Amino acid sequence: MNKRSYDSEQVRRDVLREAEALFSRKGYNATSISDISKAAGHSKGHIYYHFKSKEELFVALAQQTIRSWGERWAERAGACRTAVDKVYAIADFVMDNYQQDLLKAGQELAAHPDVQPLTLQALYGLAATPVAAYRSIIAEGMDAGLFSKDDPDRLSMLLGAWLGGLNVFVNTLDHKLLRSLYRETAKMFIQAVAAPGHDDDRAPEAGPQV
Question: What 3-state class would DSSP assign to 61?
Fold first, then answer.
């Protein structure tokens, strides 16, 4: 890799890092390309070389964030023995990795009257990564005979809705109480889908935060 290529990639990383901090702190509408340029230490021209607009920059950041979410979940899932363990693990993982401030910035962008249709499509498409993780767990449980045969797509949306409903309390509830609610949600889901004779819903110990 030559120096020019390396420098260009470093600029992109710098811009995305500082943009994440600014969007999370100030929101989408209140953050300007000038703000990001100043924080990253790179000219607006360098930013526009990589991203045609603030909108495109935010989409790239959101996609990078959800890719990282998926990679870290795959690592966490690899330490689980069964699908039951994974339901509890992903409940912990969702709580520990919920980025409320960045999500609010994305909601600001989605609500903007001039937002591009392709941007909306990209933002709504971000949900595919966690839903695919839920579906994989559920399908694994069905294949192992731990969960009753059902529509894994429907169940993955239900699990996502149950866990997602708790996300609004991440910054307001005591974390010990909140974790108990996430794990109770996991327990209720397991009880609801357990195959006959496989209703052992004992929760494993909470894993390390990832």
Answer: helix
